[in-house]
Amino acid sequence: MIKVGILGTGYGKIHAERYSKMKNVEIVGIFGRNEDKLNKIKNELGLSVTTDINKLLLNPDIQVMDICLPTELHAKYVIESLKQNKHVFCETPVTYSVNEAEQIKTYAMKYNKNVFVDLFYKFSAPHKYTYNLIQTGELGKPLSIITYNRTPALWGDLGLPNIVMDFMIHNVDFIKEIFENPEKIIAQGMGDNKKALVYASIHFNNGFSSIESSSILPDGSPFCIGYHMVCEEGMITYDAQFGKQTNETLIMHYNDKVKEVNFKNVDELDEVIKHVLQCVNTQTKSSLIDIDNAIDSLRIVEGINSSMKSFQ
Description:
Layout: E1 2-7, H1 11-20, E2 25-31, H2 35-45, E3 49-50, H3 54-57, E4 64-67, H4 74-83, E5 87-90, H5 98-110, E6 115-117, H6 125-136, E7 142-150, H7 162-178, E8 182-191, E9 196-204, E10 207-214, E11 223-231, E12 234-242, E13 247-254, E14 257-260, H8 268-282, H9 291-311
Parallel strand pairs: 1-2, 1-4, 2-3, 4-5, 5-6, 7-10
Antiparallel strand pairs: 7-11, 8-9, 9-10, 11-12, 12-13, 13-14
Helix pairs in contact: 4-5, 5-9, 7-9
């Protein structure tokens, strides 16, 4: 039985709902500052709640601390949890700076604990299919990726520069899996504190990529994600819309053939949490969502924000 503490009542409630449906997991308690939200969670999920964060931080029974606090608080409470001999599962982005993330890594190594970061794109069915296909070499080496995510203003503050840290970072993490060692980043953005549009071009030593992230779609528009990858021996195109109507297609072109790939959709958060619990249970480090992966993506994100500033 793995015992979990949760910090935060926003995404924390969503995480709690997932844990509650899984076997061999016990939620020891949830911390929050809003008593109305806590009482709602207590009544709906039957869980212990508290406004005293130390009741969870100092509880020696908790093995995993799930942190869903505002990003500016992540580093402080990730490090405090590590000091209290707990593994940590942290929402994305783990921090707003590489320096803070490096501090987290130092403490994780010092206390020999894992820090898992919710880089959930790695667990979506189309992304896993594409990544595994690239690994087999069936389509040859990847040469370029064009990827996008577009949304109305539904997800909180996705203005400049938060849209890069909070939204584009998942595209960055996917691209980073395919290519290595970014050599040059050119980015431009437009928008205000609420809505924004950012284009980023990232040159790697073995390929080229571009990303569009937008929160300027009109109200009522679907949430859209997708990518187009060109390889030596073929190409892959994924397009999806989620809203009143959901439509997903994943198409491969290779050897003068066109193949539409059917895949079973999964709940990415469920898959991430299962992965975290498996790593904790088997006392192994994640090669997918550990602090090193998060730091690598943050470095590129910082490069994108820096490039945008040079064009302003």
